[in-house]
Design goal:
It contains three helices and seven strands. The protein is α+β, with helices and mostly antiparallel strands. Strands 2-4-5-7-6 form a five-stranded mixed barrel. The chain is flat, with a radius of gyration of 25 Å.
């Protein structure tokens, strides 16, 4: 009986230790997804924290310097605007007015410094106009092999 109590106490201690380690690791590695309004509302609470920010690229705000590989633009949500700085070439589909998600950190100077830029695109698939009949394309591939 005494041995069972020690075994249960040991298992309980191990479970508590694993829970504490897992909870601590999750908090350090968690990345929040925020809209510009949510980011502005949180203010200094999220400065220098890893964040994903989603919104629309404000038309007329894109400033791309290809020599320095620097991209500056504004993400807007209604009246709220957040300035974004990013290094590296933007994705091919990047354009003003489209939805984007940027990963990075918000600075005390109210500029979001992005380390990753992703464009949102429609989830509706449309085959290319020149595709024609898929059966005919497949048949011609078999004939040419």
């Amino acid at each position: 009986m005494r041995r069972k109590l020690w075994m249960l106490a040991g298992l309980g201690a191990i479970a508590v230790a694993i829970t504490v380690l897992a909870a601590g690791g999750l908090n350090e590695n968690m990345v929040f997804f925020l809209t510009p309004a949510e980011l502005e509302a949180r203010g200094v609470e999220v400065v220098d924290q890893p964040i994903r920010l989603g919104g629309q690229v404000k038309p007329g705000s894109v400033d791309w310097n290809p020599e320095a590989a620097e991209l500056r633009f504004v993400i807007s949500e209604g009246e709220i605007e957040i300035s974004v700085e990013s290094t590296g070439a933007p994705p091919a589909m990047f354009q003003p007015g489209m939805g984007v998600v940027v990963e990075g950190a918000y600075g005390e100077d109210h500029v979001f410094r992005a380390t990753n830029l992703m464009v949102k695109h429609s989830n509706e698939y449309a085959p290319p106009e020149h595709a024609g009949d898929a059966g005919q394309v497949y048949k011609s591939l078999l004939e040419n092999s």
